[in-house]
Amino acid sequence: MYVCFAASPIQLICFKEFVFKFKIDKYKIYILSSVDPNVNVQLKKTIDFLNLKNIENISRSSSKLIQFFQKYKFLLNLYKNHHNKNCIFVISDFRNTILHQIRIIFKKSKFILIDDGAQIYKYHREYFQENMYFPWRDFRNLLGKLKIFINYGFNLKYLINSNFEIFTIYGRELGLEEKNCNKFEYINNTFKLKSRYCESNVYFIGSKMAEQNYLTMEEELESIKKVKNYWENFNKSLIYVAKRTTSKLKINLIEKKIGINVITSDMPMELQFLNLNDTKVPKIICSFGSSVDKTFPMIYKNTQSYLIIINDLKKYQFFNNYFKLYEEIMFRSKLEDKIIRL
After folding, report:
1. Average pLDDT of the residues of the chain
2. C-alpha pair distances (Å), 10 with each of 21, 82, 114, 116, 292
3. Global pTM?
4. Which of 15-29, 40-54, 63-77, 119-133 comes out lowest in average pLDDT?
5. Contact, 316 vs 156, CB < 8 A?
6. Could you state, in order of their start, the residue ranges of all structural domains in the chain?
7. Of 3.10.450, 3.40.50, 1.20.272, 2.40.160, which CATH number belongs to 2-188?
8. What is the pLDDT of residue 231?
């Protein structure tokens, strides 16, 4: 029995690919639901599209206090349901507290980590290749050490040293074995592209930099405007692909202040254009750094993906590190000619 935990569409897509690659019939998926209903709608649509079965939704309250009790109720039920079974656990967020607590509860079980965006590449570089399997560097101050004790007791050494396998779309870039490489075989073997490619528009994969307080709204809008102006020099119109959690304020500002169209969808970007006849597939996509840069061309073979680096933002430590990560991925993918610096 394989037991999976997912909280985003990309995690569900990668689990489906894992099931397909290894011909797994018996599995259980726990959906760690969001407090944002838009996220839950997209999760449901993804589950239906991929024909995933045996799903159990784990609800989460917006109240932190109630969340605390919900978490331990879930862990208790998980133990009751699976402690006498020979289970393999498929987890998908290296920094998630609950998933590391599950590693402690099921110490004798095997664990596999699947993609949660491009961060798995970063974690491999910082931890896995050094045979460390817990993000202990995030907890080096006094408050961090207290959090470790509260959440994990005296199990820190176990979490660091107890290894797990990974299954990732970045397998080639990381030099992993074939069994660890997610090549999107299920999607490519199951769905046939019916749409034509759009030559006149460039799709910009949106981010949440302002919502997450990495930038002011004005700084993010100015950065998007630079991308728009760049592509206009090539007679291309920019279309902004909003994330499912993008604020309405931001969408309105992009449309009115920058003058570009914004699209949203109940489906993840990777699945939006499959089995459609009336919607053209983007020939060019770009972003400030996103896992979609990697996943989209794996499905839509004629699409070109570009990384946009805004030089002015590198003055911030976060963006200096952020751009370095995605720049390294592009070089490892031999796509250095697809980096645009503005």
Report:
1. 91
2. 16, 25, 10, 7, 9
3. 0.91
4. 63-77
5. no
6. 2-188, 191-341
7. 3.40.50
8. 96
